[in-house]
Known about the structure:
The protein has helices at 25-29, 37-48, 71-88, 104-110, 127-132, 139-150, 169-181, 199-205, 214-230, 261-277, 291-298, 305-310; strands spanning 4-10, 56-62, 92-97, 115-123, 155-162, 186-191, 194-195, 234-238, 252-254, 285-289, 315-319, 327-330, 333-336, 344-345. It is of the alpha/beta class. It has two domains: 4-259, Aldolase class I (TIM Barrel, Alpha-Beta Barrel); 266-345. The protein has a seven-stranded parallel β-sheet with strand order 1-2-3-4-5-6-8, covered by helices on one side. Strands 11-10-12-13-14 form a five-stranded mixed β-sheet. Helix 7 (169-181) packs parallel to helix 9 (214-230) and helix 9 (214-230) packs across helix 10. It is globular, with a radius of gyration of 22 Å. The mean pLDDT is 91.
Amino acid sequence: MKKHMNIPIFVPHNGCPHDCIFCNQKKISGYKNSFNERQIRDEIEAYLSTAKGVPHIEIAFFGGSFTGIPIEEQKSYLTLATEYIHKYNLDGIRLSTRPDMITKEILDFLSHYPVIGIELGVQSMSDEVLQASKRGHSSYDVIKACKLIRSYPFDLGLQMMLGLPKDTVARSLSTADQIINLDPDMVRIYPTLVIKDTPLETLYHQGLYTPWNLETTINLCLDILPRFEAAGIKVLRVGLQTTPEIQLGQDVVAGPFHPALKQLIDEKRLLNYILDFVVDINEPIYVEANHKLYQALVGHKKGHLPIWSGHDPIIHIRQNPDLPIHVIKIGNTYHSSYRPENLHQTR
């Protein structure tokens, strides 16, 4: 059973003062236009009809810069959402916006509604990257907005992107570290994809932008994720939500797209953990797991099998139905975790 549900209301590109170089929210969200009142009601009620037993439910406005929408329109959206919050005892409202569209006046206004969380599209803390990406705000705007939001009882979420124009691995790592210093409750990580009908697609076809490959992206995430986890920051998502349109060959022209990106990262974390553990073992060893973790050991499309068989000494992997779903046995030792970042030896 689900523990949490976001009811997403997309306001694609609403409130955005201009087009960022990478952005086409109408393609990314799958919605060409913002919902009218009837459509919003239908969307909320459709989600609620499937939410029996879900303990935490929020209404979330995504896809634009909510606080940049004309104030009367914001009131209309928030009033409608508030009606459902009270009627069904939902947890609250979440919204996304730009760092340069946060002021004390805006936060005072939002405080009159059951808004519980604000997510900022930070994307990068490198001013050179922000300028090359046509973001229209600076890293200082991010710092100022986060400080303001932290003075109110809102959850703070920050979104970062990997591989924007002028970005480097070092700059992305620096962005992650600076985000940690801003003390958000949660983050989302989005590798940059070349989406159809964006200025970035034009640069890509002109040979002026080269997207990062999947391997670079996965390896960078293997460095970034532990930093957020060690700081107690929840990672809500890695990679864009896959839709029929958000696929290579559809609206994704190029870039490190994979429909199961987080799964690939988790599988490689598990692989690296085991390889590090057996580094001083000089004889063949068996690694055992229940069915679910065994699939992670095998890897996507059995991609890890050559690594195990080619290891010196050889590592044998096999299923052990007697093991709990969160336990791996390496030789005679047991390692337990419900999540790959917490894997540790227990006995």
